[in-house]
Amino acid sequence: MDKTLNKKKKSNKNTENVGSSESQISIFSERIKNLTEHLKSNKKDHNTRRGLMKLVGKRKKLLSYVKSKSNERYESIIKSLGLRR
Predict the structure, then answer these.
(1) CA 34/CA 30 separation, integer angstroms
(2) Which of 22, 38, 71, 73 has the highest CB neighbour count under 10 A?
(3) How far apart are alpha carbons 32 and 58 in whole angstroms?
């Protein structure tokens, strides 16, 4: 959990606003990256794979919400996290 708090502090301008869409998307992206690495070595871990798919869906919903509200914020999130290569 300490790693998550450190990531929140690094990724946010205002560390108190961890409920913002941008911070949630960055947290989900970090967790997705970690789970992907775990699944590379544990191919038969289907419960983790299911959790990964749920996280990807949550991130996708948040990204579509941000895009509907402000296209500039969406573009900056995509660029900063390196999504949609």
Answers:
(1) 6
(2) 22
(3) 11
Q: What is the pLDDT of residues 23-39, one digit of tens each?
A: 999 999 999 999 999 99
Picking from 4, 26, 18, the residue whose alpha carbon sits closest to that of residue 73 is 26
**Rounded Cα–Cα distance for residues 54 and 18 (Å):** 20
pTM to 2 decimal places: 0.79
Instruction: Read off φ and ψ for residue 46, nearest 5 degrees.
Output: -75, -30
Q: What is the pLDDT of residues 2-61, one digit of tens each?
A: 565 565 555 555 567 889 999 999 999 999 999 999 999 999 999 999 999 999 999 999
Question: In this structure, what is the dihedral angle of CA atoms 9, 77, 32, 24, given to the nearest 10 degrees?
Answer: 50
Q: Maximum Cα–Cα distance for the chain, whole Å? A: 40
Query: Which tokens hold the place of 11?
Result: 């990724």
Q: Output Rg (C-alpha) for the chain, integer angstroms.
A: 14
